[in-house]
Amino acid sequence: MQRLIDANHLEQSLPTPSPADNNHVMTRHFAVESFRALIKAEPTVTPPPVYAKGILLDRAVRYDLQKAFPKAFMNLRLELIVYPARNTTVPLYGADTLDELNARIIEWCSREACKSYSSASQKYHLNGINQFCHTNFTRDGMDYIYTYLGNGIKHDLCRRFVGEMDFNLNKLKHEIKKMEGTT
After folding, report:
1. 74 forms bridges with which residues in the sheet?
2. Which of 167, 148, 159, 44 minimizes the C-alpha distance to 94?
3. Side-by-side strand order, sheet with 79-83
4. pTM of the model as a whole
5. Measured between alpha carbons, how far is residue 87 from residues 30, 65, 68, 121 in Å?
6. What is the pLDDT tens value at each position of the chain, 183 positions in all?
7. Of 58, 115, 151, 170, which has the fewest CB atoms closer than 10 Å, so is most exposed?
8. How many other C-beta atoms are found inside a 10 Å radius of the C-beta of residue 81?
9. How many other C-beta atoms can be found within 10 angstroms of the C-beta atom of residue 77?
10. What is the DSSP string of the chain?
11. Which residues of 85-111 are buried (b: 16+ CB within 10 A; e: fewer)?
12. What separation in angstroms does the CA of 16 have from each of 10, 26, 31, 36, 61?
């Protein structure tokens, strides 16, 4: 049986301070306010980690990520730091399918693959995207992708580009023209 805590009963059960003991009064007041805040606070539920659904538990996926982006590591906020020198970050929370992971790689790495001031960074990102996603994009193709899909601006379209369109740039261009109404 779960027992509820009554803040007033808890306060009454604390020892009463003597008038000469000012520290005790502050400690008692602090304790009472802390208990009240804890009792009133809504319980917080920590969401399950991204790997709970298995995509990042898949050894082959982790191997492919590391092979495509050798400098990458995952931090405690469930972000893939693809290139620490440029702080390219891919949010992983909720990426529970390979299509979702591919879409996020495209969305968050495409800028560095085509617009970075460093040619080494451009090459690293473009090669990594191509290797991980099993594509063969050029810098110009990646520039187009970044313009319409980068930074998660059209996530649903990016998911379709990765899944339904199978990374076909011509299909993406056709879909964008259709969306803009210039068929």
Report:
1. 80
2. 159
3. 73-74, 79-83, 88-91
4. 0.69
5. 42, 17, 16, 11
6. 445 556 666 566 655 656 555 555 556 666 667 666 666 665 554 445 444 456 776 788 889 999 999 999 988 888 899 999 888 999 988 888 999 999 999 999 999 999 999 999 999 999 999 999 999 999 999 999 999 999 999 999 999 999 999 999 999 999 999 998 865
7. 170
8. 17
9. 10
10. -PPPPPHHHHHHHSPPPPTT-HHHHHHHHHHHHHHHHHHHSPPP-PPPPGGGGSTTT-HHHHHHHHHH-TT-EE-TTSEEEEETTTTEEEE-TT--SHHHHHHHHHHHHHHHHHH-S-HHHHHHHHHHHHHHHT----HHHHHHHHHHHGGGTTHHHHHHHHTTTTT-HHHHHHHHHHHHT--
11. ebebbbebeebbebbbbbbbbbbbbbb
12. 12, 12, 12, 18, 61
Q: How far apart are CA 124 and CA 70, in angstroms?
A: 9
Using CA atoms, how far apart are residues 143 and 9, in angstroms rounded to an integer?
Answer: 65
Q: What is the pLDDT of residue 51?
A: 46
Distance (Å, whole) CA 166 – CA 148:
16
User: How many angstroms separate the CA atoms of 150 and 88, rounded?
Assistant: 13
How many of the other CB atoms lie within 10 Å of CB of 68?
A: 21
**14 burial via Cβ count (<10 Å: 0-12, 13-18, 19+):** middle
